[in-house]
Design goal:
115 residues, Glucose Oxidase, domain 1, 3 helices
Length: 115
């Protein structure tokens, strides 16, 4: 389960309604309510329907997580773009979002311990 974890999302070449469907599935599965944070990377080369969905991927995601109190960082420099930094998975981290900045900090006291 995702209890207390930070979820990372990014995609390339996807239809906007697929992002909406993914977020609905994550919410119904109990994933979104149990998170401690959400990192949204780059959504590049997105596709819209013939009848426009009306909003971009970030707005779709925000509409599904607005009710939760955890930090959400948009446009994080990870994904299928030229600004693509490494994201270490499995480490204990803290996510803070302040104004137009996001900070992802590795907790040194837990880093290096094996699960």
């Amino acid at each position: 389960m995702a209890q207390g974890n930070i979820l990372f999302l990014e995609d390339v070449g996807e239809n906007l309604y697929h992002i909406d469907r993914m977020m609905v599935q994550l919410k119904r599965a109990g994933i979104l309510p149990s998170l401690s944070g959400l990192i949204v990377g780059q959504f590049s080369d997105m596709k819209d329907n013939k009848d426009s969905f009306g909003v971009d991927a970030n707005a779709i995601i925000l509409s599904h997580v607005a009710e939760f109190a955890y930090p959400v960082a948009f446009n994080f420099p990870i994904g299928h773009t030229s600004s693509n930094f490494a994201l270490q998975v499995g480490l204990e981290t803290e996510l803070a979002v302040e104004d137009a900045q996001a900070f992802l900090k590795i907790c040194q006291s837990k880093a290096g311990q094996q699960a």
